[in-house]
């Protein structure tokens, strides 16, 4: 899966994409990331990417031309890629969306708007708009990372224990996904690990885990 990210802040992706599971996913060859600097598609000698809104109002909007040209540039490398726009106005991004994106195994292009917003015409070049929650962030970079992380970990081979992702696939969106877990020591400052987990009774442990999800 090729994932291209269009952003004004390419450097913020460096650490996130090149560590832990996202790094591993690249290392084993199941995903390939490319970060595209929207500024390179800016207009004029100052590579302008934003402008004030028609009709007045605060702030600046990402202009349609640089963003659409950046999307077209990305599409040349990934013809059938799904174009994703993170926005608080989008559909709720939940676990089933992550599962669908992972199983479709389409390439992705994620566009990160910034500042106060974007020219609405950009959405004509977008396949799906997602909100990662009912709050407003300053840009699409953090939502893009959320989407990438949640999808890539579901690609077979990435988590190692295939089973973990498999188990989750039966979970519904509105349930918490994991039961509480504990490791050594058995007691820390008077706080003990639940007895059943030390018992060695697999059926009882499974029952406890189901109950405590
Ligand atoms: N951009 C700003 N806030 C957002 C949110 N909650 N979800 C997705 N994109 C956003």
Features:
Alpha/beta knot, 2 domains, Trp Operon Repressor, Chain A, alpha/beta, 8 helices, binds adenine, 9 strands, 213 residues
Explain the overall architecture.
There is one protein chain. The chain has eight helices and nine strands. The protein is an alpha/beta fold and 213 residues long. It has two domains: 2-162, Alpha/beta knot (3-Layer(aba) Sandwich), CATH 3.40.1280.10; 179-211, Trp Operon Repressor, Chain A. The strands form three sheets. It has a five-stranded parallel beta sheet. Strands 3-4 form a two-stranded antiparallel sheet. Strands 8-9 form a two-stranded antiparallel sheet. The longest helix has 14 residues, at 64-77. It is elongated. The two termini are 32 Å apart. 26% of the residues are buried. The mean pLDDT is 94. Bound molecules: adenine. Adenine binds next to strand 5.
* Biggest sheet record: 5 strands, parallel
- Determine the mean pLDDT: 94
For this structure, the CATH topology of the largest domain is: Alpha/beta knot
Quick one: overall form? elongated
- CATH second-level architecture of the largest domain: 3-Layer(aba) Sandwich
First-residue to last-residue Cα separation = 32 Å
* Contiguous runs where pLDDT drops below 50 for at least 5 residues: none
CATH hierarchy class name of the largest domain: Alpha Beta
* Total domains: 2
SSE order in H/E notation? EHHEEEHEHEEHHEEHH
SS content category: alpha/beta
Task: Annotate the secondary structure layout.
Blueprint: E1 2-7, H1 11-17, H2 20-27, E2 32-37, E3 50-51, E4 61-62, H3 64-77, E5 82-92, H4 95-104, E6 108-111, E7 128-131, H5 141-152, H6 162-168, E8 187-188, E9 191-192, H7 195-198, H8 202-211
Parallel strand pairs: 1-2, 1-6, 5-6, 5-7
Antiparallel strand pairs: 3-4, 8-9
This protein binds adenine (ADE).
